[in-house]
Amino acid sequence: KYYRTHHTETNLSELSQPASMSGKGNSGSSSSSGSNSGSNSYTPYTVTGSGTNSQGNNYDTRSQPSGGAYHYSNNDGSYYYSNGNNSTYHNDGQGSSTYTAPNGNVYKK
Fold first, then answer.
1. Nearest 5 degrees, angle CA 94-CA 81-CA 53?
2. Which end of the chain is more exposed for a tag (fewer CB within 10 A), N or C?
């Protein structure tokens, strides 16, 4: 009996170790809440305001689990997202888009 309890304890500590280690790794980065929750850092979002800027482009401001965000929809068909985890996405409306990740990496399509 003693051996079995002891065995369970080691299992538990082994299980909790990777979790605590990844927690440490995440807290080092500025966007820990964004990187933790993956796709959930964008949804669910709440639109907190919207309007039209001086160029006649529509925008709305949003609140996401990872922070404040906004979305622009422009007259020329392009659009732009800025997300709460510091990532941005821009589509020029002509088939090419640029995504900037929270860590500053830029991906072009």
1. 90
2. N
| CATH for 38-108, options being 1.10.10, 1.10.240, 2.60.40, 3.30.1120 | 3.30.1120
Over 70: is that where the pLDDT of 51 sits? yes
Count of other CB atoms within 10 angstroms of residue 103: 11
pTM over 0.85: no
CB atoms within 10 A of CB 43: 9
Distance between CA atoms of residues 40 and 46, nearest Å: 13
Phi, psi angles (nearest 5°) of residue 41: -75, -15
On the question of pLDDT at 1 being above 90, the answer is: no
Strands 58-64 and 106-108: unpaired
Binned at pLDDT 50, 70 and 90, residue 35 comes out as very low
Residue ranges of the domains in the chain? Answer: 1-30, 38-108
Q: What is the DSSP letter of 27?
A: H
